[in-house]
Amino acid sequence: MAAEIDVGVVEVVFFDAGGVLLEPDWERGSAILARHGIAVSPTALAAAEAVAKREMDNEAVLLGTGSLPNPNGYLGWVVEVSGVPHAPEAVAAASQDFEEEHTRNNMWSVLREEVPDALGRIRSAGYRLAVISNAESNLRDRLASHGLTEPFEALVISAEVGADKPDPAIFQAALEQMKVAPERALHVGDFYEIDVRGARAAGIPAVLLDASGLSADRDCPRVSSLIDLARMLASATLRADTSPEAGGTATTDQAEPSGEVQTVSAARRPEVTSPRITKPRSLATTVGGSDQSAAMPGISVRCQCMASVDRQMTRRPGVWSMPTAMTTSPIPATEWM
């Protein structure tokens, strides 16, 4: 059963950048591949990425975004899933160009359309915002180009901190910068193994952004969009403001996607200031050695979801997720371009 999160005590919401706020620029990706004789459209690459991310997001094959087992890195995974004809040496050369372009001018540069509205709603509900990202320092310029520096009180970037998610050290650095206790924070990311497990290892509850609906088997709260996240956070906060002091149970009066049933149980958000975290956790802390299963009472939004990525996946209850039935298959050749 997926863990529940008490949003009534949350003060700070941390966001991953790539895949949550920004998407890859597949126009540039398609052009890079074309230079090496691989013809595939930006649309086809984006569709393949959704499946490739789920394939990558596995403990057996993914230990961090800097250590993908595929020798051709992130682009290699996407090209393989796309099914486009390619020569191995061409993909290797294109992947090297992709990585070099990313280092020069962050490839995760396309602002997700929902982001400004969602961030505005979440801030209006009284939450403080920050970014925790496995990225180079050029992420700052990329976010600034979209006007996304003002909403965030801190940008915690792996290249500057010296630790990558899922290392708890980068989450600890974020907690210290925001002067918030882990139980009063919430992390939102798009990789279970990197974001959810990393946050949990630092004591931070986490939500998985599952825009493709392919992660119904995960043991964590999920949202299909940041607008859904904003709706849940705002609804719970408003209910908390009007509920009895001891808490109450109610259903949200916000318009919800068809088929989604919500039950909100929220306590009043306390008017307190979190203590500053002064003692960092040991860097020897490992994801596998942390308690990642503790359920927290609070908001509970449940539905049944099922997904398939060319193989059967377990049907499980989800939390904060859209009901979906999805089966993916290799992209037809007519859609490569």
Structure description:
It is a single chain. The chain has 337 residues and is of the alpha/beta class. The protein has two domains: 7-20 and 112-319, 3-Layer(aba) Sandwich (Rossmann fold), CATH 3.40.50; 24-108. Helices cover 33% and strands 15% of the residues. The chain has ten helices and 13 strands. The protein has helices at 26-35, 42-56, 73-82, 88-104, 115-124, 139-145, 158-161, 168-178, 192-201, 226-242; strands at residues 12-15, 22-24, 108-111, 128-133, 154-157, 185-189, 206-209, 222-223, 248-250, 264-266, 302-308, 316-319, 325-327. The strands form four sheets. The protein has a six-stranded parallel β-sheet, with helices on both faces. A three-stranded mixed β-sheet has the order 12-11-13, with no helix packed on it. A hairpin with a 7-residue loop joins β11 and β12. α2 (42-56) packs across α3 (73-82). The longest helix has 17 residues, at 88-104. The termini are far apart. Residues 238-337 have low confidence and may be disordered.
